[in-house]
Amino acid sequence: MRSERYCACQTVSVSLVRVVTWNVHGSARPKRDALATVIRSFAPDVVALQEIRMGQAHRLASRLGWNVVWTRKHYPLGPLVWWKAEGLAVLSPHRLRQRHTWLLTPGMRQSTFRRRIAQHVEVDTNPRTGALLRIEVVNAHLASGPDATAARLEQAKRLATHMGADTDRSLPIVVLGDLNTHDEPEVLDALLAHGLRDAWPEATERSTQSGCTSPSADPAQRIDFVLFGRTWTCRKVHVPTADAGWPAMSDHLPVVADLVHTGP
After folding, report:
1. Regarding beta strands 86-92 and 46-53, do their DSSP bridges make them parallel or antiparallel, or are they unpaired?
2. Strand partners, 21
3. Domain total for the chain?
4. 184-240 confidence digits (pLDDT tens)
5. What's the first-to-final CA gap in the chain, in angstroms?
């Protein structure tokens, strides 16, 4: 929520909140400085990352000079190799507070990648200038695989139930994440039925026609989403053009959205 440059070419208004979602494929050990440079170039207020290890998240936040909340999803190699645990992270130059960790796959052991969670975080955007807007951010990563539609649908319904029970209806909400759903309207509809809207079709301006984010070398699927509640409008949504540099950072492209809070 501040006047600031975007990719050194655009000035944004003080009523705007810029959000980013990006699956950074942490097990492939992306270079921290490269991630930090890209994230900083977007000048975001909130960044939601998926598939990131705790150390990666904290080192990235340190490199940016930002705050971070990291939540463990699962232990790929067991709890004895705790430093390789994979999870979700929300980063911001503003103050963060962890509210909830929602388990989307009850009964699933922490040793399997099939375990899925969502983060629920509050962010005080731009408190230093007095233009304080407290927002709720949900960071989610649903089941992967072409045969996992039923699992994704169940997880989306469970996420919607948690949001209905545990979020503050007086605060504006943004849902970010890798939903792994492409051409599965029933999965997205389970979240839109909660009163959310999809930034890509709602945006006044879009950088590409498709919004596809995966795979980053030749995107063919739109599986990374920015969803927002009724008190927002979407001014612009942007997915970078694929080139040789992106696969070195992740197998996904990021999604950047400019949201304007319309109140109350």
Report:
1. antiparallel
2. 48, 255
3. 1
4. 999 999 999 999 999 999 999 999 878 999 999 999 999 999 999 999 999 999 999
5. 16
pLDDT value for 78: 59
Whichever domain contains 73, its CATH number is: 3.60.10.10
Six token digits for residue 25: 């494929």
Q: At what angle do helices 149-166 and 185-192 cross, to 10 degrees?
A: 0
Crossing angle of the two packed helices 54-64 and 32-42, in degrees rounded to 10 = 50
Q: Which two tokens stand for residue 216?
A: 């980053």
Range of the domain at 14: 5-261
Task: List, in order, residues 6 or more apart from 119 with CB less than 8 Å away.
Answer: 48, 69, 71, 88, 89, 90, 98, 100, 101, 102, 137, 138, 139, 140
Determine the Cα–Cα distance for residues 170 and 191; give it in Å rounded to an integer. Answer: 19
Q: How many helices (H) and strands (E) does the chain have?
A: 5, 15
**25 closest CA partner among 248, 211, 255, 257:** 248
Tokens 């960790």 belong to residue: 101
Residue 129 confidence (pLDDT) above 80: no
Residues 232, 159, 93, 134, CA torsion sign: positive
